[in-house]
Each structure stands twice: as C-alpha cells, then as structure tokens.
Amino acid sequence: MMISCPGLSKFKTKQVVFEEVFPACDSGTLEQLKEMSSKRRAIEESINESSSVTEAIAREMSGGLTLRCEQDIQKLEQYLPLLENLVYHVNRGRNNPWVDRWMSDLKLRWTSPLISSSIFHVKSPKYFQINYVQFELGMVLFLYGSLLREKALEILQTDLVQSAALFRKAAGVYQHLAHEVLPSLQLAARTERPPESVPSVSSVMSLVCLAEAQAVAARRAEEKGNTQNLLAKLHYGVRDFLDEALVILHSATKECKDISSPFADFIISCRMLHELKSYKYIAESLKVDGKIGAAAGLLRHALTSIGKSTPKGEAWRLVYKQLVQEMTELLRKYEHENDFVWHEKVVTKHELPLPETIKIVTSTPYQPQRSEKTLAFKQV
C-alpha cells in the first residue's frame, strides 16, 4: 500500500553556455567550460523534451539504460562534478568585483514543479532567474533527488531492496541540499525564488523519501510474514516521518506561499493511510492476544475518527476505500465473534492502547564529487 505524487521531476530550464559567460584564461579552462555546456545541454534537451534523439539511440548512448529517469540520472552524475568545480572556483573569488559581473550575465532560469501556477501554465511556465552558481547547483541537485525517487517508484513492484535504497539515497541528497547548499543561497539571493531553493522544502522532501523507504520496509516485512505488532510499529513510523514533514511544510508555506496544494494533500493522505494501516495491525495483534474487545474498540475508533477525511486524489481515494473496507469487514467479524463467543466489553477510545512506533531507515549521506581540474579566469 503506497501512493505516489507524480511530477516532482518535471523541471524545465533555459540554455546556459558557460564559455560565453566566464572568460577563460587558458585552453584547459575553455575546454572544461565547453564540456560543462555540453553536459548541461544534454540535460536541457531531456527535461525540456526537445531532444531529437530516438529511444534506441538514447539507450545505446547511456550504455543500455532503458528507463528515461535512469538516463537522466546518468547525465546529472556526469554534469555535477563539473558544476561543483565551477562553484568551488567562483566561491574562491567571491570578493572580487569581476565575479559579480559574470554572475549578472549567467542568467540561470528554472521552472518549479512545486508551485501551484505550474499546473495552469503548462505551455508557458513561470521561470525563476537567480544569477548565482549556487542556484544552479541547488536546482540540479533537487532534480537529481527527484529522479532518484522517481526511479525508486518505477522499480517498486520488481525490486523492493533497490527501491528502498534509492529512496534513502534521495533522502540524503535532499538533506545535503537543506544543510550544505541552500543556506548560502538564502544570504546571496534576495529575489523571488522557487520552493526548491528553500532549505525547509528540501528537508520536507528528505522526510518524505525516508517515509517512503520505511513504507517499502513495511511491505517487505508483510511479505515475510512478520508479526502484526512489528508491522503496526513500522507503519506508524511512516506516519511519524510524514507528521514531521507536515510541520516543516507548514513553516515553509510562510516563505513560499505558492507551493502546490496537491503536494501537501499527498503528504496528508499518505500519513492518514499509514496511520490506518497501523491501527489495523494493532487490532489484529490484540485479537491474537485474546483481547477482542480492545481490538473491536480500536477499529471502531479508527474508522470513526477518519470518517470525514478522504484523500483528494482519485488514485489515493481508491487505496483509501479499499483499506477502509478491509477494516470495516474486520470490525464486523470481531463484533460478531465477540457477541456470540467472548462477550467482552468493547473498550472506548480513552481505554485504547497508544500506538508504538519504530523507525528503521536512515538517509544515505550524499558525498559530492568535484572535478579536480583548475579553472583560471581573466579578471576583466
């Protein structure tokens, strides 16, 4: 039982030609800048859907990778070390006036899939322009994390272990963004910015990925036939990750008022579903322990408390209705058995056991790779 929020990797960007912005002092620097432009152009054409390369050629160029997101991940992993190196050398000269002159010519422009207006301006999306190389690094890393998460969702049905590993890797990328990359951009750029460039939004995404990794772990535990008690704790752990994400998201919306409501709806719906799943397993565990009155009371309380709350997404509602139906049938079964066999008191919500939680996943730390080639620029 997992629901998804598609479209978080649907960025678009305008072309950047680095060798036209940064005056190279030697042939080695010029070659490096041209390579950067080439690597970025491959990313531009892919995410802008402007490439003329066929699927067969794209697969051959990527060494046999079949998924589009896999091919884009590979392109980003080739571009990021070059970009990290440029950021390093630009930061070394940050106190020089010629650096500001270059930045004004850089014109880095990206769209945001997280803003609500992106839904209504598909043909002419809103571009955010911040002329700092840290902005480029931030947006590229956010795209990288989104594609890792997209790949994790695509292989979910076939490889749970690899899917969980990718969710944890994406969480590490977002965590690195929130703590190491974006804070410096907040001090440098005072213009309007997309949510993806705000540290708290990356923190939200990191927690979402951790919740999804734990949800995969819960599914593996279900397939292995682990106890209902353990399964209840795992699903409540997913709920706790998402609860923390919602608190941070509420704070982030004060800074980014245009964050798309479907994104928040996804987190709320996912939180609710895993909380219900946890209650279902707690009830089953209580029944195994011979506490059928407590089990029936817990199911009754869970179904009553969420009776007026339904997910807004159609696909999410289908998952929700199926789970509610399962819990309703289970409650009917327990009540019938209790009436005819056990005659236990059905406990009220004030007497119900409190849910317990465990979190068994952590993020995989992101280790940035930097090209070691020296860049030398003319101070003009």
Automatic annotation (TrEMBL):
It holds the Pfam family BRO1. It comes from the Eukaryota. Residues 7-380 form the BRO1 domain. InterPro entries: BRO1_dom, BRO1_sf, BROX. Transmembrane segments: none annotated. Belongs to the BROX family. This is Uncharacterized protein isoform X1. It comes from Coffea arabica.
